[in-house]
């Protein structure tokens, strides 16, 4: 196969006068393609030439695209430079206007409004800070500590009857205006109701609603309750009928709840007392003698009532063997029947004798 050559002809070096200085550096980057070096007997030379030509064209296209992007960047840069130039110009203009204003301001004569100015201004709002969320254990411990410390003051407030007396007492003891006082007053009401001191319960319940209305007012206004209890007393002293009716309605509801809680506490106390008595009278087998007695047949119950052993034995003999054995065991486990130790030994000897006779017969 004949060799093929691809030669890029360079322009001939022009003849010049030695006195003239010509720069030939622009020809240093001319690409000369000598494809002869890349030929091989194992490669199709025309295909190789076409591939190299295509690669060369792609590189030229990429270079051209980069040139176009550079032109776009230059245009964007020119826009930014124009904006910066305008801003600098505006800055000088504004600085000049400010300077002129200050010069004119110094020329203005003083008067009543300009001879002095306010030194400081401060506004204080009596708002209640957002409290930190407490756990149930922390609330219980806080309530216990507060009640132990101020139990006497809380009880004294609960016994006050006049609005003015209550307001004055809270003014002297503002620490009592809190949720713990209201809770403690409720407990006092329940204790009075359990002791059947209904009049005292109603008196303390009234003061409980007073404290509850103060706390509700503080939540509505979002302020500390110690700073708004005077507003409540001012309002309740001259209250219109709807407000007074609302107060009385809440008082009646509280008294009903107190009676229900007192009844429930008494029932629970009775159950606990009965359970303690039951535990005390349990027999050696862990059974309650009262329950066992109530489950016995009537004839056996009568024998226990009359403490008649003969009657008990006869009643047992009338029962089926398994049934009699069942009732007898329950009587022993509950302590209703305490078998005599001697009788127990005789029974064992009788059982042994019967066993021996059975063996001899066998």
Automatic annotation (TrEMBL):
Residue ranges of every copy of the Cdc37 C-terminal domain listed in the record: 281-362
A GO CC term assigned to this protein in UniProt: cytoplasm
Superkingdom of the organism of origin: Eukaryota
Start-end of Acidic residues biased regions: 342-362
Listed InterPro entries: Cdc37, Cdc37_C, Cdc37_Hsp90-bd, Cdc37_Hsp90-bd_sf, Cdc37_N_dom
GO biological process terms, semicolon-separated: protein folding; protein stabilization
Location of the region described as Disordered in the Swiss-Prot/TrEMBL record: 335-362
Main location group: cytoplasm
Keywords tagged on the record: Chaperone, Coiled coil, Cytoplasm
Molecular function, one GO term: protein-folding chaperone binding
Domain Cdc37 Hsp90 binding: 116-277
Subcellular location(s) per record: Cytoplasm
Domain Cdc37 N-terminal: 21-123
One Pfam family of this chain: CDC37_M
Presence of the UniProt keyword Cytoplasm in the record: yes
Coiled coil in keyword set: yes
Database matches in SMART domains: CDC37_C, CDC37_M, CDC37_N
Residue runs in coiled coils: 60-107
Functional note: Co-chaperone that binds to numerous kinases and promotes their interaction with the Hsp90 complex, resulting in stabilization and promotion of their activity.
PANTHER family linked: CDC37-RELATED, HSP90 CO-CHAPERONE CDC37
Assembly behavior: Forms a complex with Hsp90.
Family in the record: Belongs to the CDC37 family.
Protein name as annotated: Hsp90 co-chaperone Cdc37
Organism from which the protein derives: Amphiprion ocellaris (Clown anemonefish)
Lineage: Eukaryota, Metazoa, Chordata, Craniata, Vertebrata
């Amino acid at each position: 196969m004949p060799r093929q050559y691809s030669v890029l002809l360079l322009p001939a070096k022009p003849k010049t006068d030695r006195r003239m200085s010509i720069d030939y550096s622009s020809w240093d980057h001319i690409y000369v393609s000598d494809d002869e070096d890349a030929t091989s007997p194992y490669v199709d030379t025309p295909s190789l030439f076409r591939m190299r030509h295509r690669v060369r064209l792609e590189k030229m296209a990429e270079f051209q695209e980069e040139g176009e992007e550079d032109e776009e960047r230059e245009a964007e840069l020119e826009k930014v430079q124009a904006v910066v130039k305008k801003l600098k110009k505006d800055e000088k203009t504004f600085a000049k206007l400010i300077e002129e204003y200050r010069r004119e301001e110094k020329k203005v004569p003083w008067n009543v409004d300009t001879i002095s100015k306010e030194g400081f201004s401060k506004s204080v709002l009596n708002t209640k800070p957002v409290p930190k969320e407490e756990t149930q254990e922390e609330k219980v411990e806080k309530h216990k500590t507060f009640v132990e410390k101020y139990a006497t003051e809380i009880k004294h407030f609960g016994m006050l009857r006049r609005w003015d007396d209550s307001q004055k007492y809270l003014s002297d003891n503002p620490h009592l205006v809190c949720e713990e006082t209201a809770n403690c007053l409720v407990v006092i009401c329940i204790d009075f109701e359990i002791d059947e001191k209904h009049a005292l319960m109603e008196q303390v319940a009234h003061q409980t609603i007073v404290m509850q209305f103060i706390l509700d007012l503080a939540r509505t206004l979002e302020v500390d309750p110690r700073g708004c209890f005077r507003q409540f007393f001012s309002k309740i002293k001259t209250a219109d009928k709807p407000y007074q009716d609302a107060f009385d309605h809440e008082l009646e509801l509280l008294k009903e709840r107190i009676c229900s809680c007192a009844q429930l506490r008494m029932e629970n106390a009775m159950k606990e007392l009965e359970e303690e008595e039951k535990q005390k009278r349990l027999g050696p087998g862990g059974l309650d003698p009262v329950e066992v007695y109530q489950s016995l047949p009537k004839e056996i119950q009568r024998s226990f009532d009359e403490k008649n052993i003969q009657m008990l034995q006869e009643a047992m003999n009338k029962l089926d063997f398994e049934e009699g054995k069942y009732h007898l065991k329950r009587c022993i486990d509950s302590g209703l029947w305490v078998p005599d130790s001697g009788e127990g030994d005789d029974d064992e000897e009788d059982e042994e004798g019967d066993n021996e006779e059975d063996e001899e017969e066998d």
